[in-house]
Predict the 3D structure of the following.
Amino acid sequence: MNTSERAVASLGLHHVLPPYMLEHLAENGPERLREAARADLAVDRQLRSARAARPIARYGTAAEAADTTPNRTVYDAKNRRQLPGVEVLREGGQPVSDIAVTEAYDGLGATFTFWWEVFGRNSIDGNGLPLDASVHYGRDYDNAFWDGQQMVFGDGDGTLFNRFTVSLDVIGHELAHGVTGAVRDLVYEGQSGALNESMSDVFGSLVKQYAAHQTAEEADWLIGAGLLAAGVQGTALRSMKAPGTAYDDPNLGKDPQPATMTDFVEMTDDNGGVHVNSGIPNRAFYLSAIGFGGYAWEQAGRIWFEALSGPGLSTAATFTEFAAATVAQANTLFGPEAGAVVADAWGQVAVEVVVELPEGDDPVVDVTQTESGAEAGAE
Amino acid sequence: MILTLYRSGGFAAVAQPEVSVDTSTLPKDEADHVESAVREARVAELAGQPAAVPGAGDRFVYELTVHEGNTRHTVKVTEPFADPALGTLIDLLSSYS
Ligand SMILES: [Zn+2]
């Protein structure tokens, strides 16, 4: 389907009304509400199917939600591949001499603080979910990942990579996968997967900037600074400011990230290049943050998070759809000038944005769908 | 028995060049060790997993092929593994890179 669709913005009623009441409204409610209720029902079904896929293993209990301080546990996997390993540090415990344990514990603390102080979000799920991390996973293991329940960090092989707890933004990145899973579980494949990756780089970088009190102009916008082993030619693993320039090394190869949609890479590895094409939305975020100036989490970060969590975004969102959502949120939250800053940022990375500004009291957003099979179902 | 292992994905997304091991070229003890690791991991019984599992990120994807006689079995698996024997096999094969 290549036609432009006009979707009526939903009312957000699915947050407060059970589905049977929405169905009643959609059938028998006042005419003005019927269409919106139908849109809400579509969103509700989408959220339900996302929940059914269990993007996070569990949500915090009432007692956990009432506690707005972090609840961290760090485990030592002892160079094996079994999770979680042996518990070595629990919240408030005595400091340990193992630097990887300390970095993981402190990094989780800084990440928790960021989400709580900037977004009022109590942990990954907003319900105080305990934060678990395992360090020393595997042998010479060149990776960090989020398995859907916890963070996992390898020691690196020492030749190409150092230990993966070394950069705060890497810890922030992994935890952000948990947040994305809980908020809008962007399918980890192709463009929606690259958006999922970009969210983690964006919020991972913001965690680092917030901890260092850096403005957008002061920040280095690097992901994984300190991660490349001594002797590797490069400054970091990725650059949000200049994708494709982070490293160029005989052993590691060259940073493969494109900076604009023109250079989008079609590939099958890496779930369709989720860590490669994330360079495009990463740079759009950087350009927005620079366009606003000051602390990036105050406007750009808020816009990105609201666009991610807003009810209109599909879990299979394309760059174009996400761009439209960010421009709409910028308009709503900070006015049309902010919308123009964000639209210009996407324009600079050659991602098409199709947004109709709100008219009167009826928020109407135009979403142009360029791919079949990406229907949000709200019409 | 010819085994190949290809690793992609992960936070750094730097693919590991394909590792290939032909046990007929190895000393007998070593060949036995590799072949028993393949049996322990029950590779022949493994079904492929979907590449995109909800709610996770940055996990390595391993493509493992076992070629023995006329049979050839290829499976794509994503970390972490429920069975530790699979991790042991992957570490063992990676040591030939
Ligand atoms: Zn990631």
Summary: DSSP finds two helices and four strands in chain B. The CA atoms of residues 39 and 57 of chain B lie 29 Å apart. The first helix of chain B runs from residue 28 to 40. The mean pLDDT of chain B is 89.
